[in-house]
Amino acid sequence: MKRRFALKAASAALALSGLLSLSAFAAGTIKVGVLHSLSGTMAISETVLKDTVLMAIDEINAKGGVLGKQLEPVVVDPASNWPLFAEKARQLVSSDKVAVVFGCWTSVSRKSVLPVFEELNGLLFYPVQYEGEELSKNVFYTGAAPNQQAIPAVEYLMSKDGGGAKRFVLLGTDYVYPRTTNKILRAFLHSKGITDADILEEYTPFGHSDYQSIIAKIKKFSAEGKRTAVVSTINGDSNVPFYKELGNQGLKAIDVPVVAFSVGEEELRGVDTKPLVGHLAAWNYFMSIKNPTNTAFIKSWSSYAKAKGIAGHKDRPLTNDPMEASYIGVHMWKQAVEKAKSTDTDKVIAAMAGQTFPAPGGFKSTMDPKNHHLHKPVFIGEVTADGQFNVVWKTKGPIKAQPWSPFIPENKGRKDEPEKK
Hints:
Elements: H1 2-27, E1 29-35, H2 43-62, E2 70-76, H3 82-95, E3 100-103, H4 107-120, E4 124-126, E5 139-141, H5 150-158, E6 167-173, H6 176-191, E7 199-204, H7 212-222, E8 228-233, H8 239-248, E9 258-260, E10 280-283, H9 292-308, H10 321-340, H11 345-352, E11 356-358, E12 364-367, E13 374-375, E14 379-383, E15 389-394
Parallel strand pairs: 1-2, 1-3, 3-4, 4-5, 6-7, 6-8, 8-9, 9-10
Antiparallel strand pairs: 10-14, 11-12, 12-13, 14-15
């Protein structure tokens, strides 16, 4: 009996020890939220960003983690459902107690979660180009503002090198990013002497798949005499039928160039790009950029994608602009936490000011000391037959973001930093 009692006591002690070890492990991690659509219309673009964040976390953990603790990712799928983004954001911050969230693609998803992060004083890193007209203390914007993508792209189209366009089709998905960006672009075009008669503005819903009549309308508009270009803010999986129809109707870049703001290497994966050669995209990074930092980034991603068997990337690993922005965001947050010696939101926000990181795009990325945006270079690339982009134009260096566009009159006098609440 004594022996049985001793064995039970030893078992209880081992069980308690195991529980304590698990508790210590949990206490020894820093939870990090990943909020990207893994299903629905935006999964074509967002799934790979989830994987990029996980790769960056693995890299950081392999080097000892942050503040001596391993990062523990908490991945959720808001399924391209905008109200669900808010629910999942609240779950991550309130229930899962994450220190930071990396996520969102569309501006409607970001607008959905913004009140949650501001109410709970959480921290969101947003990695995609957007329309500006927003500045929150709880968000760091690692994608481009309009003056770091949309405005330079249209300036290029109007230039001699870009074809000297005099008429513009503003074609987008029907939500806040395309409509606000096109409001800014229309005002910019007016400032350059382009009248409303030479601007055609069209929108389609998320998931739209029939572009036959719209492409026909663009062909008719472009046949009216002046050099025409298309500015595309189509998002998600609608890009596949759009570009397929572009090829079907023989609308070639030499006749009517299309410049896209949401199409990169990943979106072209499912498209026959041979008919699209010469069409354009404006980004702050392309996979084809040659420099040692990008070579290392591509190599890391290729090894990670193959090791994890990531769908579509195991045999043909691709990198793109939002992946770069996601990667920079995770590493900058880690640096800020170490500088602050804390994951406290307000301390990390203060420590983010002026953070730098060597960007695969070829320049040192710098977080503006005030406006929560990265200083970013701008590249314009032509689609090549293999689905890559040949850079045809670039800025001399990084451009400081203008969150509040000077082409919107009501922005006059706005401060270029988040309001203190």
